[in-house]
Amino acid sequence: DAGITQSPRHKVTETGTPVTLRCHQTENHRYMYWYRQDPGHGLRLIHYSYGVKDTDKGEVSDGYSVSRSKTEDFLLTLESATSSQTSVYFCAISESPGYNYGYTFGSGTRLTVV
Amino acid sequence: DQQVKQNSPSLSVQEGRISILNCDYTNSMFDYFLWYKKYPAEGPTFLISISSIKDKNEDGRFTVFLNKSAKHLSLHIVPSQPGDSAVYFCAASLTSGTYKYIFGTGTRLKVLA
């Protein structure tokens, strides 16, 4: 989607290696989120950020860490990738937590851990 | 514990007919609900929303109904078009904190020409 870019789009990595996924936005939105999508589970929140250097855990945060040193970038790191982290990862941004705002999602990163 | 449930993983509807997608939730504190549509290899896109102070919201061919007593919402698409074929997610948010959205598992809609 315009204004939000995820990189890489696809990645294959080996078990035990570190992996970093990047989300970049040009909308200057305060809120950024990382979700994973898995069959039978829908979209589950991993971590989110409500400002530079302000982050918090979501419902499936184990094995993941995040960093946000600039408004426009939100990084998701798998410290030591496992096969259970094979998934499609989506970044989302939001201007405000107010009622009239949903998320704008990126196009996703498909990660395969072999 | 799935707080937002979409019990029908798939649905097929003839073109021109009504599509009804259902969503149930367990937390009575949810006060804002959204529907997203997702095409393959793309991110979800926002479709329509409803606040808990309303029971209906309409936008063109899309209408969302909310039944708070039953903790149930539904998305109606009339008339259904082949381009509506996608996965639909409902999502709910709480009033407090950072308004994180909890998503359902999705329903794959196929509109048959």
Kindly summarize this structure in a few lines.
With 114 residues, chain A is mostly beta strands. Chain A has strands spanning 4-7, 10-13, 19-25, 31-38, 42-51, 54-57, 64-70, 73-78, 87-94, 104-105, 109-113. Chain A is globular and about 35 Å long.
SSE layout:
The complex is a heterodimer of chains A (114) and B (113).
Chain A: E1 4-7, E2 10-13, E3 19-25, E4 31-38, E5 42-51, E6 54-57, E7 64-70, E8 73-78, E9 87-94, E10 104-105, E11 109-113
Parallel strand pairs in A: 2-11
Antiparallel strand pairs in A: 1-3, 3-8, 4-5, 4-9, 5-6, 7-8, 9-10, 9-11
Chain B: E1 4-5, E2 10-14, E3 19-25, E4 30-38, E5 45-51, E6 56-59, E7 62-67, E8 72-77, E9 86-94, E10 101-103, E11 107-112
Parallel strand pairs in B: 2-11
Antiparallel strand pairs in B: 1-3, 3-8, 4-5, 4-9, 6-7, 7-8, 9-10, 9-11
How many helices of chain B in DSSP terms?
Answer: 0
Largest contact between chains:
A-B, 29 and 25 residues
- Which parts of chain B are unreliable, with pLDDT below 50 for 5 consecutive residues or more? none
General shape of chain A = globular
| Content-based structural category of chain B | mainly beta
Give the overall average pLDDT of chain A. 92
End-to-end gap of chain B: 38 Å
Question: Could you state the oligomeric state of the chains shown?
Answer: heterodimer
Determine the fraction of residues in helical runs of chain B and give it as a percent range: under 10%
Q: How many β-strands of chain B, per DSSP? A: 11
Q: Which residues of chain A sit in consecutive blocks of at least 5 with pLDDT less than 50?
A: none
Q: Write down the Rg of chain A.
A: 13 Å
Distance between the termini of chain A: 29 Å
The portion of residues assigned to helices of chain A is under 10%
Number of helices of chain A: 0
Could you tell me the radius of gyration of chain B in angstroms? 13 Å
Number of strands of chain A: 11
